[in-house]
Amino acid sequence: MEVLFGTVKELVALAEEQKKPISEIMIEQEMLITKRSREDIVAQMENNLTVMESAVEQGLQGVKSTSGLTGGDAVLLQNYIKSGKSLSGDLLLDAVSKAVATNEVNAAMGMICATPTAGAAGIVPGTLFAVKDKLNPTREQMVNYLFTSGAFGFVVANNASISGAAGGCQAETGSAASMAAAAIVEMAGGTPQQSAEAFSIVMKNMLGLVCDPVAGLVEVPCVKRNAMGAAKALVGADMALAGVVSRIPTDEVIEAMHRIGQSMPSALRETAKGGLAATPTGKALEAEIFGKDKPARDTVNS
Amino acid sequence: MKYRSVFEIIGPVMIGPSSSHTAGAARIGRVARDLFGRQPEWARIHLYGSFAETYKGHGTDVAIIGGLLDYDTFDERIKTAFEDAAALGMTFEFIPEEEEADHPNTAKIVIGDKQGEMELVGISIGGGTMEVTELNGFPLRLSGHFPALLVVHDDRAGVIANVSNAIASQGMNIAHMEVGRKEKGKMALMVIEVDQMFDETLLNELKALPNVTQVSTLAN
Fold this sequence. Notes:
The complex is a heterodimer. Chain A is 63% helix and 2% strand. By secondary structure, chain A is mainly α. Chain A has a single domain (8-288), classed as 2-methylcitrate dehydratase PrpD (Orthogonal Bundle), CATH 1.10.4100. The radius of gyration of chain A is 19 Å and the shape is globular. Chain B has two domains: 6-142, CATH 3.30.1330.90; 148-218, Alpha-Beta Plaits (2-Layer Sandwich), CATH 3.30.70.260. In chain B, strands 3-2-4-5-6-7 form a six-stranded mixed β-sheet. A four-stranded antiparallel β-sheet of chain B has the order 9-10-8-11, with helices on both faces. In chain B, a hairpin with a 2-residue loop joins strand 5 and strand 6. Chains A and B meet through helix 2, helix 3, helix 5, strand 1 and helix 7 of A and strand 1, helix 1, helix 2, helix 4 and strand 3 of B.
């Protein structure tokens, strides 16, 4: 398969040589690989953007998951922002609340767009709809935000993993937060290299994060990990825009994430057997939701 | 490369809560349904690894049944797939397995009706992307990225040439091709991924070839 880029180094070099934003390189690669037209590709991404918008709106109205474990926190956060007492800043907290909103909708089996996964679906849209109020992007720039996120995610997915079962939460919310940081930088007018720096700074702070969902549900701690992922994405983007660089190149950070994932025991890779899932309260919640005796063999309607 | 499109990273649009355990699972079910070519009357689904441990919480079970009913990842009817299957008279059974599979998110789907049955092993590799790794006991790698033809045939000289000639005569290009057999001279399987969509003419032509016993298709 012919590709334009397989690493972040190649991606940044292409963008710099051709004086194009990373989002544009991603669109060109998509055209090359899928043989689809630009209009078609952009229209599909715009549809994804619309799905993300609806999910945030729905979450901000307040939703509750069937298990009852999550829901309603996005509303609490919005009310707190309105009180004017926020210490970390309105924009940051807005991103956090919108990330939470998306994941609460996801946990309630609502419709979302995976970025790169459903469990990490809050971070990219959460940050986008928060920085939107400050940067006033056009609709096209918002779509490009998703292409830039996708370009970095593409490298991670092919060189490491974006699956919690394979690489832990660092592969899911870690990837999402790093992708978002890179996209924020581009939207704010930073260089392709600064996008890469932002990605590295955030990913370095996500390394080692395990996937330990209570009762196997994409709720606890997933929703709050999306919240913190959004916060890290914004701070990482600000750091890169300020001129801070990563000592370890992005592709090596991604490789490190991959290796850490491979050495993670299976109990900490989405099996709900370790970490928070194995705490007394985690187990009690599981028993409460699914009943004490998990049947070994499950027969339904047969 | 495991992932080829940006929409595997920003996407799919789907019903929550998990891209690998819900959307990927629905896609495995739907590919099985596609290859079977009709609505199965019964299904037996073996789950391995993380699928076996957490399938209830992630809606993996309703998603696979939804896929077997031909629902897409964003189809709201996934939520009522159990009831919908019952209404159609399809029976099903989930069997969480203890043994380890090569991939943590593995499902073996056995489906059938009065006319026949089919066994498919699929893995959900993350972000809603899946691969078929085994079909009726034949190991293979099928991503679902391209339209594909699956030809079951007797292991005889000339069958592969006949099939590829038939494809070439339609002006079609083969993107990827794999041939496997269980035993010399016995049943063999050809998996052919092509660049364009194929039509009924080609399928009928393939079915009519000597030593070809079954032709299934997988649309992109």
